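Dear U.,

For the methods section draft, I wanted the exact inputs and outputs in one place so we can describe them consistently. I've listed the two proteins in the order they'll appear in the manuscript figures. Please don't edit the token lines directly; just add comments below if something needs changing.

First protein:
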Amino acid sequence: MIDTCHARVVLNPQAGHGYGRAGVNSAIALWRQHGWLVELTTTEYTGHATELAREAAEAGYDLVVAAGGDGTINEVINGLACTATALAVLPVGTGNVWVRELHLPLEPVEVAEILLQGVFRQLDLGQAGERYFLLMAGIGFDAYVAGKVEPGEKRRFGLVAYIVKALRLARQVRGTPVRLVLDGRPVRGRALMIVVGNSRLYGGFLQIAHHASPVDGLLDVVIIKGGDMRVAPLHLLSIFLRQHHFNPDLDYYRARELSIDTMVPLDVQVDGDTIGHTPLHLRVVPGALRTLLPAGSFDHLAAFSSPPGQLLRSARQRIQSSKLANHP
């Protein structure tokens, strides 16, 4: 039981269709009953959650609680990275990917009760340019779609808004020649999309980077190849069935850092929000985020990872096979 804790709750009042405040208030009341010192703040503009989190870290708070969706969590971690102040989450948003990754319930007061018995642990963060991410970065088609979804559509329809927009935009997308350098190893190809995962779940239910773990000091890189989006349904099916290691058009790598350069600039998103375009440098920052996790969650997250050697050997074999195929 965590008996004392000085916490700041950062609530996005627009998250979850604006209905999250009652649940958050109940969670705060529960924590206060157990002796926690908790204050509630609300965001007013894009980037405000980062400012509120950084201010709390500089003031020596034990905990900042992100009460919102994955976008709110991302803003908060960008204020907490490499500080002694921990992150916790209360589910209020529409996607709640990180909450699902931890197998937490979707009711804020239930999560608050679980966290009273929680443990503090260090997690890795990914970094894309100057922006930290907890879940993943996407380059190409998914980032293009994310940039086209209006905030109102996202709040009202959640994941459905992305799916509808993706279907409408698919015909416009073509594969782009890309060059990656992963821990010094060059990789070339024509890609529709690249996912760089620090955790497994994508969109809340797909496991694209299914070996990704925020405790292993590595980023998992999935390159979805192809000339146009007509191949996308088969790729999605192989991902859904967790058979994409056997899909010749999906390459899976692991690396501590990588750079991505493209013939034409591709959009980039982190944790669902667009941040710019290629070229891009990404790296893992081991142990950069102190977090309050449910008991047992750290071991749960660690169990996803597999030894990098096997996957790296697989990657080298794939490169060698490609060279042989191109040079009979």
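Second protein (the one for the lower panel):
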Amino acid sequence: MDVIMLNILFFLLYALLFIICIGIIHFIFTILEVTKGVEGPGYGVLTGILAGISSSLIMMLIIHNMPI
């Protein structure tokens, strides 16, 4: 497969993982806000940081386990 096409596919997969992780983490923070009744001012930044870390770790796991 062409290297450019492979890079595009990896970028699309990483972007999709990032969006999914943002959704899951935002859902968890929403549940915590509803149950605890506490609103945190920095939940948007924290959601982005945690989604970036988790999607990067998932992507590294996928690339590590790929056959060459």
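Candidate sentences for the figure legend, describing the second protein: Residues 13-64 form one domain. Residues 48 and 67 are 31 Å apart (CA to CA).

Thanks,
Y.
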